[in-house]
């Protein structure tokens, strides 16, 4: 494996700094507006927002679930500004603190309540998803290979529908081309695994999950794959990250539609019933580390499938490491530690990128960062 590049500390990145001083307080305002929170919950949320903007990071209360573990993980960062910690680490801790502030982990009324559900549900009921579901009738008419590629691209660009990102970036419609396109290699990988099992590490609920489910249906129905293991988050995270509940909501959205979408929903329900589609999770998916630190059980699971496909920006950061890589360092080199063939489908929404051709990088211009963070560019990379 190549030498590790320096980790991204938020103070070194205007984009990451904004996540703490703008995105997180705006998210907290939305939560305050969406729920009948009691005074203590409101106080805890407002304190967390203030801490993010100009306070210092406080550890979890000593009696909170997982407090010892987080105490050990974050010893070097508590008492310092949020932006002084590694970006990836501090964001994960923010979501742990956010859920803790409303009582998600405590016995009582708020235990297990997904505070992001109103935002996810609005997206699922909206016109973007309606158009996406309706478009399946046309895609069904395409030849099998063209349909596969169309669904792959739809799963890729579906990653723009990230509700955390939209808090500060808005829902833009501008898209540029792919900065890296290993889709031929990815299809070869899937064909060589024909009839086998593939892991898909999901990202967002709503529009993106609908696109992922439609792609999964295509891969299973066409016989390309015998089994898909879909990994979701064990708890609400990064606003729109999918949990098992979201997979259920998306499946029901497909089943409630007419035409091709309903067929997709029915086939997926059948695939789940006979084990060809399995939904799984692991606590590590909400841990503040990249995949080099994955636990042995997860490593063994990824090693047992023919390939793993990771969706989205955060999974990409965790796959290659949230680091200031030279953008031309090969994807295969950085991901060589991964237990088995691996691919990434990601729209670019943070500083990290690897695997670019020098010519592509020259065209994008390495000085400006908008192409890295605006969600207008995307990539498909495979090892
Ligand atoms: O993983 P996703 O949904 O594609 O993107 C997550 C994201 O919006 O959140 C992080 C910043 O808060 C970045 O990784 C990215 O901008």
TrEMBL record:
Highest taxon, organism lineage: Bacteria
SUPFAM superfamilies: AF1104-like
Transmembrane intervals: none
The reaction(s) this protein catalyses: beta-D-fructose 1-phosphate + H2O = D-fructose + phosphate; beta-D-fructose 6-phosphate = dihydroxyacetone + D-glyceraldehyde 3-phosphate
Listed Gene3D superfamilies: Uncharacterised protein PF01937, DUF89, domain 3
Keyword Glycosyltransferase: no
InterPro entries reported for this sequence: ARMT-1-like_metal-bd_sf, ARMT1, ARMT1-like_metal-bd
Keyword match Hydrolase: yes
Keywords (A to Z) from UniProt: Hydrolase, Manganese, Metal-binding
Family label: Belongs to the damage-control phosphatase family. Sugar phosphate phosphatase III subfamily.
PANTHER family membership: DAMAGE-CONTROL PHOSPHATASE ARMT1
The protein's name: Damage-control phosphatase ARMT1 family protein
Organism: Streptantibioticus rubrisoli
The organism's taxonomic lineage, starting at the top: Bacteria, Bacillati, Actinomycetota, Actinomycetes, Kitasatosporales
């Amino acid at each position: 494996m190549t030498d590790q590049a320096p980790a991204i500390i938020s103070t070194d990145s205007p984009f990451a700094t904004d996540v703490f001083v703008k995105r997180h307080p705006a998210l907290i305002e939305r939560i305050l507006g969406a729920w009948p929170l009691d005074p203590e919950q409101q106080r805890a949320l407002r304190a967390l927002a203030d801490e993010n903007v100009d306070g210092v990071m406080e550890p979890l209360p000593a009696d909170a679930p997982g407090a010892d573990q987080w105490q050990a993980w974050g010893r070097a960062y508590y008492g310092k500004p949020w932006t002084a910690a590694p970006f990836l680490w501090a964001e994960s801790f923010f979501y742990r603190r956010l859920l803790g502030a409303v009582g998600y982990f405590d016995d009582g009324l708020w235990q297990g309540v997904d505070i992001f559900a109103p935002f996810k549900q609005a997206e699922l009921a909206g016109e973007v998803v309606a158009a996406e579901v309706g478009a399946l009738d046309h895609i069904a008419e395409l030849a099998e290979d063209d349909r596969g590629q169309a669904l792959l691209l739809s799963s890729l660009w579906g990653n723009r529908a990230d509700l955390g990102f939209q808090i500060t970036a808005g829902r833009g419609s501008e898209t540029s081309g792919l900065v890296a396109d290993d889709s031929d290699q990815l299809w070869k990988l899937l064909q060589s695994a024909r009839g086998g099992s593939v892991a898909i590490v999901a990202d967002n609920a709503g529009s993106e999950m609908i696109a992922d489910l439609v792609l999964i249906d295509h891969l299973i129905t066409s016989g390309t794959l015998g089994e898909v293991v879909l990994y979701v988050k064990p708890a609400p995270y990064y606003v729109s990250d999918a949990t098992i509940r979201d997979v259920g909501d998306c499946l029901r959205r497909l089943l409630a539609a007419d035409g091709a979408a309903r067929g997709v929903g029915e086939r997926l329900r059948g695939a789940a019933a006979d084990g060809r589609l399995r939904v799984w999770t692991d606590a590590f998916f909400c841990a503040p580390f990249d995949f080099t630190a994955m636990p042995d059980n997860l490593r063994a699971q990824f090693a047992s499938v023919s390939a793993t496909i990771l969706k989205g920006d955060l999974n990409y950061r965790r796959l290659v490491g949230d680091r200031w890589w030279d953008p031309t360092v090969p994807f295969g080199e950085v991901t060589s530690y991964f237990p088995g063939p691996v691919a990434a489908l990601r729209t670019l929404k943070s500083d990290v990128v690897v695997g670019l051709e020098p010519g592509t990088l020259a065209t994008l211009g390495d000085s400006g960062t908008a192409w890295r963070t605006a969600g207008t560019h995307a990539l498909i990379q495979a090892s």
